[in-house]
Every structure is written in C-alpha cells, then in structure tokens.
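User: These chains co-purify. Model them together.
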Amino acid sequence: MIEPGLYNYWIAMILMMTGFFVVISRGNLVKKIVGLNIFQTSVFILYISFSKVDGATAPILDDRFTSYGNPLPHVLILTAIVVGVATSALGLALVVRIREAYGTIEEDEILEQDSAS
Amino acid sequence: MAVAITIVRLHNLFAVVMLSGIYSLLSAGIFVELDAVDVAFTEASVGAGITTILMLGTLALTTDTERPAARPHWAALLVVVATGALLIYGSLDLPLLGDPNAPANLHVAPRYIQDSGREIGVPNIVTSVLASYRGYDTLGEVTVIFTAGIGVMALLGRSRRRKRKEDES
Amino acid sequence: MSHHLVLRVIAKMLIPPILLFALYVQFHGDFGPGGGFQAGVIFAAGFILYGLVFGLEKLKQVMPPIVVEILVAAGVLLYAAVGVAGMLLGGTFLDYGVLAHDPVHGQHLGILLIEFGVGTTVAAVMITIFYNYAGRGRLEDGEG
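Assistant: Joint model of the three components:
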C-alpha cells in the first residue's frame, strides 16, 4: 500500500513541519529565523523532487545524453533561494535592532515590555 | 532530519547556527542526487555560506543562548501534526518520483529542452531559461536583492554614528 | 599569536583562487552549472574572508564602502540597460536577439551582460551587508 516512490515527498514534508514547529513554538527570534530557513529549504527539496526524471541527467545539453531533467523548477528554486537569503538578511537586521531597542530577543519579554509601556 | 530535530531542541544558539549550515550543505547534496546541479551550487554557497555568516554576525551583536521554554507547546505540536497529516494525505495523489509523464514535466519544459539549443545556443538550459526565456523574472529577483541590501543599509547603517555624535555635542 | 599567523598565511593563499573561481563560475555559467548568483556569492565570500582575517579597516581600504554601494546599483542598472537597449534597437524589452548581427550571438551577448550585472549586484550587496553587520559594536560597549 505504501508506494516507495513517495518517500521523498514525505521526508520533505516532515522537514517542513519541523521548521514550522520551530517558528511557532520557540520564543527566541534568531531560532525562529533558523526554523524559517529549514522550512524554505525543505520546500525546495519538495519542488526539486517533482522535477526529477528517471534515467535522465542534469539539464545541460551534451552530445552524450538524450534525455534531460526538467529545468523549469530549477529556475524557480534558484530564484527562491536568493529571495530567501534576502528575507533572512532583513529579518536578522530587524532582530539586531529589536535587541538594541528592547534589550532582549525572547518574544514574551518583548511583549511584556510593550504592554507595560 | 536528525539535524533538524537537534536544531529544535538545542539552546546554545551558536551550535544551532552551525547545524543550520550543515543542514544547508546536506540539502545541497540531496539536490545533486536529484540532478539539480545549479540549485545545489546555489544552495551550498548561499545557504551554507552567506546565511551562516549573517547569523553569526547577528549572534555577535545579540546574545548567544536561548532561554529554555517555560511550558511544553502542545498546541503548536497539534497544529504541526495536523498540517503534516493533511500534506501526507495530499501526497498520495502525486506522481511517483522520477515519472517522466508527470504533469510538471509535460507542458512547457519539453519545448525549452528542445528549442533552447537551436534558439539560444547555450548548453546550460537552466541559464538560458533564467536569463532569456524568463529574463524578466530574473530582473525582479535582482531588484529584490537590491532592496534587501538597501533595507539592511537603512536598518543597520548610519544612524548609530549620528546618534553618538548627538550625544557628544 | 602563532595561530593568527597560520590563519593569515592560509587566507592569503586561499583568497586569490576563491576570486578566480568566482570569475570562472560567472563566465562559465553557460556551459556548466553556475551563472551570476553563485559567482556573486563566491566573490563576496573571498572579500569577507579577507575582512574576517585581516580586520575591517584593511578591507575598507581595499574596497571602500562608497565603491560597494555604487556597485550595488550599477548591476541592476546594467541589467535594465540591456533590456532598454533591446528596445531601442527595434525589438521588445529584454529581447536579446537584436543586439548583434545574428540572433544566436545576440542571445549570447545579452546573457553574458545580464549575468555580469546580476553577479555584480549580488557580490556588492553581500559585502555591504557584511560592512553593516561588522561595523556596529556590541550593545555593551556603546550606548544603550
């Protein structure tokens, strides 16, 4: 009943859920951003799994091969990786500023300071 | 996956950052196994390199341990398990790994593969799609990087030095 | 002090190959994996390594922040300029076919130029981010 061909997708989904769990359950801001990165990377693994074709090679034209993998998800994921690093950079810069403004990077302490003032 | 679970449980943030670098490197290996060499290259250099440096920089400017959680997070765990179960249920309809007749491989991709050699003459199909067939998207992507650079400059840039000058005068 | 010496020697040996590799990846993106983004990141990594081992001041002498900030914008400008040049020569925006005497060569030229623009912007942004992160002191020794 369990298809061996689906294992890749399941592993990617479990990784996704791990990243998701880190984002919503841990209060430390830097750890949240690490969790976001785990989530993003596992989504990439899922997409690239969609693009694999059995018996084909990397999509670079060469006279020795006739069948190539699907290049379209590669392009999308390339863009997504770069956008992901842009997001992480801005997020981490915000964390640094929050630390300077509030003195802490734990989420509940920040909320306390906001509701107290 | 062991790396991911260890990241969840560790409190020493320096170790967490190092492990996330290892995670990126391992996923780059997975990408190579899945025939995606361009993506593996980018993920290895960007994920294991730049992101790790950024996080280390952030840790140098903030603290480096996490305060342990006061109570277990059962609601979060429930949400995560429910979403995961839904995803796995959805995945039962997906085509098997490596199926050449999967819908993802059928519509535009064969046209790119067949015509890229003739129309553009560049062997690397990923580059030709990225730079020519989908060049407008790549322009948007460069703009995103540009905006991120400007954002970091605005957030972390000059204002601190100006504040110090105001305090002295 | 001695392990600092080992770091400096190894860094001096490694940085030129890193920069050379970045250029190789940039211009070889047509024939193998690579292209603008990877090359820009590797190029920036070479400079960041120099800054980490030899100090931020020396890095600022080699690559002044003003130059880097200009490069950030220049890459995007190059990309858009190639697109507009395509328009001025009679085609549509970002049509490379009209850039040279023959459509295939035009595509080659266009791809080369825009990948160079992409690589420049990515490298410059990474170095700028490093400057901004490294230029701030720790909270304890500044003001609060």
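Residues 1-66 of chain B form one domain.
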